[in-house]
What we know:
Blueprint: E1 4-16, E2 22-34, E3 38-42, H1 49-56, E4 64-69, E5 80-83, H2 94-104, H3 109-122, H4 138-151, E6 156-160, H5 168-185, E7 188-192, H6 196-202, E8 205-209, E9 216-221, H7 236-257
Parallel strand pairs: 3-7, 3-8, 5-6, 6-7
Antiparallel strand pairs: 1-2, 1-4, 8-9
Helix pairs in contact: 2-3, 2-4, 3-4
Protein name: ABC transporter ATP-binding protein
Keywords: ATP-binding, Nucleotide-binding, Transport
GO molecular function, one term: ATP hydrolysis activity
Amino acid sequence: MTVPMLSAEDLGKFFLSGDGRVVRALEGVSLTVREGEFVCVVGPSGCGKSTLLRILGGLEHPSSGRVERRPGRPPVPSASFVFQDFAVLPWLTVRSNAAFGLRMAGVRRRRAEEAADEWLRRMDLAEFADGYPDQLSGGMRQRLALARAFTTGSPVLLMDEPLGSLDPQTRRLMQEQLLTLWQEERTTVVLVTHSIDEAILLGDRVLVMSARPGRLTDEFAVPFPRPRDPGIQDSPEFGRLRARVWDELRGQLTVHAR
Length: 258
């Protein structure tokens, strides 16, 4: 994993509040995400994690600094996003939701739906292809959101708390499924999460952001080999790394609470 896929240099993002004040969301953020790497970002609420993700994916422009996608090579096609609220379209069937990204990219319906059906099968949703999202549980809707993202074939997947609204048991199952899928596909992933355990289980690196304005304060390499067994969460090594990340994050949370 030596070829850069995403590169951000000295990013800043500023907003005007309703009363005209300047709100600094990000300041001086630089990072490189290598091709096929799974990078997780943790930090206090409101520290700019989601803003960073949107800038990396081109949904927002930075106020300062720059982002390069696949620097030195042809640019990356649009990144795929997965959000906490699933963002599925209730008036479309499960199959049409899964095919939506490809259809918006101009792919013919039959080809898009064939690709969607393959991912619905892999997500154990094939039997619901002709149904609608309101017939699915929360975990199933999130699997549908993941199927849609993977169906596009984009080499970059950006995920903003994708499992945050699930109950603990469903979240654990989804973490294991996402881990398996990534190890099969090796898509470049940036995941924003509030869960340190989730970040360590899934990621190659864990980045910690400060309280607003968001800066990257530390980086932790995850030492566990791939393919990765979810059982590592019970190991002493996992616990020690969790404690190190928490010590850094706790410092940022303390600042944020003042």
